[in-house]
Amino acid sequence: MSAYEYVGNLHVHTRYSDGELYHAGVADAALLAGLDFIVFTDHNLWLDGIEGYYGDEKQGYILLLSGEEVHDRTRHPQCNHTLVYGAEREVSSHTHNLHHLVQTVRKSGGMTFLAHPDDHTVNWLKEPGIAWADRYVEGFTGLEIWNYMSRFKDYMQSFREGVRNVFRPDEVITGPSPLTLALWDQLLEKSQPIVVIGGADAHGTRVKVGPVSHTVFAYDFLFNCVNTHLLTKSALTGDFEFDKAQLYQALQEGRAFIGYDIPGSTRGFRYSAQGQNVSVVMGESIRLGHGVTLQTMAPARAHIKIIRYGEVVAEEANTENLTHVVREPGAYRAEVWRNYRGIERAWILSNPIYVEPNPGGLRA
Asked: What proportions of the chain, in percent to the nearest 5, are helix, strand and coil?
């Protein structure tokens, strides 16, 4: 069973596209937030030569990786943003054909994630919605299930709401878009393995509402919000190539969960399944049989749910541990909700454990 947990952000922009800081400044903010790695995803731009460990013995070290957020610039609005990791090459020239883009990245050994699939328009800011429009595309690795900045647009649908909420984002954010969660469950029900991630979509941009300007979404603030936790099979060693391979393998296989750290640290969460002589973690598969049991362990008391295709099959409030004996095959994911400032908020979202049918017809 995987035992090594590393926390990072998979959606970060710099001044090479529309961010406010260069790579070193962003890395300093990530170190301040205690992250283990970040992936730079500037728009339609993959940069070589920026990867490696950054820092020193005093402030610590963080692994910097180079990805890309690509989209077709000829479309209006410019929807269908795709996060690309591990392709090791520029792929933005393929965005006019999404199927070809996905296949090109796959052949290059990389991964594709649909970015902010349900991004909405903010009319008063003249901010277009850049959702995922062409949902016929198949073969992608997964979904960005929780994009912090995209989700915040839902809390700025009027001028009055925007003025009020831009200065108190931690009070209004409650979780990812229900529409995106529903999309994920629909894809899982079609027996399509889908890896989910969360990210900041960090730009560090100063927000101006009327005469007031404020950097409410600074990099260090966002890096303390929605991050992705990866469970590697081996401890990172400080060797760049080895460590990069470990992180990307965990991401590819879905050994990951999303944590929202404003209500409290999410490090230490675990979701696993035990059967006869076998144990697996999120992202992995187990065959249905007598006594197959899902186990969810939270870092603190919270409201835990186990969900199969959108249906809650087990839940308990005010607990650190929830178990569920599986009786039918399917993709089972876990959600953990925690009260913060009087409101229950999504705290942790796991990738699924896949319970496969038993060809012998045995049921749990």
From this structure: 20, 35, 40
Same domain, 308 and 204: no
What CA–CA distance (Å, rounded) separates 270 from 282? 8
**What are the φ and ψ backbone dihedral angles of 47, each rounded to 5 degrees?**
-105, 130
The total number of structural domains in the chain stands at 2
User: What are the two backbone dihedrals, phi and then psi, of residue 305, each rounded to the nearest 5 degrees?
Assistant: -130, 145
Residue owning tokens 């990072």: 8
Tell me if residue 354 falls in helix, strand or coil: strand
Q: Would strands 60-66 and 37-40 be described as parallel, antiparallel, or unpaired?
A: parallel
Dist. CA 148–CA 168, nearest whole Å: 14
In a shared domain, residues 84 and 175: yes
Give this prediction's pTM: 0.95
pLDDT at 212: 67
Residue 29's identity, in one-letter code, is: A
pLDDT of residue 364: 42
Please check whether residue 330 is in contact with residue 309, taking contact to mean a CB–CB distance below 8 angstroms.
yes
Q: What Å distances lie between residue 288 and 168, 195, 283, 313, CA to CA?
A: 46, 21, 16, 16
What one-character DSSP code corresponds to residue 324? E
The verdict on 176 and 272 lying in the same domain is no
pLDDT at 140: 96
Residues 295 and 250 in one domain: no
